[in-house]
Specification:
Number of strands: 8
Order of helices and strands: EEEEHEHEHHHHEHEHH
Structural class: alpha/beta
Strand order of the largest sheet: 1-2-4-3-5-6-7-8
Shape: globular
Radius of gyration: 19 Å
Distance between the termini: 67 Å
Length: 291
């Protein structure tokens, strides 16, 4: 008599509040390199089989409490582009604001970035990207702003403040962190994506998260966006509760020649919740602006 076939193993359901080293399926295939820049460790993620063509480098800057690992769903673009998934330093020295420190670290020779590269920033990362492109226009050959933050007058302060609750003490985190992650990612964000948001944010100290939030609440680059002279793509989710579509539209109106793309059912993290549509728009944009 033949033995009954063993049932296939069940996929593990991502925990609501994972440990900081509990990397979720789909986000665990990346290579991680740690670079010491100005005495500060910076984690840089890359795709194992990705392009190594330096002339096609795209540096990707994540949101408020995220790491470069959050861009893992962009893997289909890695064959054509050298994607460097940057993670801001976990701690900012008292001598700088996080925004100032990120700009300094990004432009330091120890970062070992090409002389010119495309720059992508999501949420807080878009704020850093805008500031970097204004300060170092000679180095940025294309700009992709996702859920862009350019002025505190155009974002929902309360929603942004609530986003820091993913770093709540563990008993409270079980109640609030998954909900906050769901608000940020929207209904189409897979459970692995929600777990990744919570997991990585919990690596940050509450003070560092608060200091980054203060950067956003002090930001007002809207009046300077007209100085940008770089091809710019803006991608916004139609259901973003943190950066409303009107804010993204305002950024597009102020950047000369900017291209605006809406993903109607996406929220604040469209590259995690709607990767196919997001990757298609980014790929098309970068192909039209290779230099």
């Amino acid at each position: 008599m033949l033995d009954a076939a063993a049932p296939p193993p069940r996929e593990r359901t991502p925990p609501l509040v994972p440990d900081v080293e509990d990397i979720q399926r789909g986000y665990d295939q990346l290579l991680c390199e740690e670079r010491c820049i100005r005495g500060t460790p910076v984690r840089l993620f890359t795709f194992p089989q990705g392009s190594t063509d330096v002339s096609r480098t795209v540096v990707c800057l994540p949101g408020l409490g995220a790491s470069g690992r959050s861009f893992a769903p962009m893997e289909p673009l890695a064959q054509a582009y050298r994607l460097l998934l940057w993670t801001p330093p976990l701690k900012t020295p008292a001598t700088h604001t996080p925004l100032q420190w990120n700009l300094s670290v990004l432009n330091h020779p120890e970062a070992r970035l090409p002389e010119r590269f495309a720059l992508m920033g999501s949420s807080y990362g878009s704020l850093v990207s805008i500031a970097y492109a204004l300060e170092h226009p000679e180095r940025v050959k294309a700009l992709v702003l996702v859920s862009p933050v350019a002025s505190v007058r155009r974002v929902r302060r309360l929603a942004l403040s609530l986003s820091t609750l993913v770093r709540a003490p563990r008993p409270l985190a079980y109640l609030v962190a998954p909900t906050v992650a769901r608000v940020m990612g929207g209904k189409w964000l897979p459970p692995e994506g929600r777990a990744e948001i919570v997991r990585e944010a919990r690596r940050l100290s509450p003070m560092e998260l608060l200091r980054r939030l203060r950067d956003i609440l002090a930001a007002d680059f809207l009046h300077r966006l007209g100085e940008l002279r770089v091809p710019t793509l803006i991608i916004e989710g139609g259901r973003d509760l943190l950066v409303p579509p009107s804010a993204a539209r305002s950024v597009a109106e102020h950047v000369p020649g900017a291209q605006m793309e809406f993903l109607p059912t996406a929220s604040h993290l469209p590259y995690m919740s709607h990767p196919e549509a997001f990757n298609a728009r980014v790929s098309d944009f970068l192909a039209r602006h290779p230099d």
